[in-house]
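Risk register update: the risk that structure generation would not scale has been downgraded. Supporting records follow, first protein first.
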Amino acid sequence: MAAKNSKLRVDLSEEQKEIVKLFYQYDVTFVHGDFGSGKTLGATHTALSHLNKKECSNIWLIRPMLKNNLAALPGTIEEKLAPYIYPLQQNLEVCQGKDQTERMMKNGVVRIMPVEVAKGCSFVDSVVVVDEYQDMDYQDFRTVLTRLNKGSKMIFCGSKQQIDKQIGKKSCIYKTMDLENSGLVGYTTLKSNHRNPILTDIINYLENGK
């Protein structure tokens, strides 16, 4: 039976618990998997648990955006990022509810940062969740990774099957896959589909003819 976290609303699957194990073993962890495998939920759950234990001060949420689109959007940085960051916010809400999530974001406990302004920053006493990182080129990946300060941890969530066509072969995920057996980082691939099970059959039929 899955172990419950008394402060969070959901349990992690056995696959997702591997994220937690790697998170405490390594400062940088990569979580790969196709659609519906629970990468983001596992990462945000792990980050929130760490925060609830008072083992860090805040959580940073990072998600790549299409180049040059940020400045064209109206509003503050938070307003510009809201549509892009919503999938991460939704997973926080699944874990702990909407009101608590909104409070944490308002109070700066949960913070949002676009890749474009990460240069020069430093993630201190934090857990950093980088979602859809396969849509970064290597330079953006390197910029985000090198912001990590001592005592902080970073989780990259990505899928080779979901690389945006604007990135294509420039995706950093091809290079980071070389880290799997390096012993330097945590690395796991989730295989379960937590969404509607028919999706797997439909995709397999369309892409493999069976």
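Supporting record for the second protein:
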Amino acid sequence: IHPKREDKIYVLDAKYYKAGANLDDGNLPGGESILKQIVYAQKLERNDKIKCTQHKIYNAFLLPYGMKEKENSLVPLGSTSEDWYSEKEMCENEFLKIKAIRVDTKTLMYNHKGADDKMFDEIADLIERM
């Protein structure tokens, strides 16, 4: 739980899959990874110790790529989910839509332990806009 975003939880899964220009390009996480992300979020949602029912939960895959000059270090690829959830369930539970974001590996490494939360804030803002 981020101090500035106390009402939100972000379940992030950094993958080593090659990310292409969109969700149809590259080697992206399969159904088992999608299901694990949903289960992680459901477990948090039902955790009485931190009262997650009061939080909005987001799910995202972070996929590496090598940034070229003047490219953004974060690139949204889209979202994926399991097709057996109804439209109503998808609207009520944001975490059922797993967002996919390309992240420049070098930028991430330089910002992984920064003094501020700029990189996290950029990732969180992008997840919420997708």
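The mean pLDDT is 79. On this basis the risk owner (M.S.) recommends closing the item.
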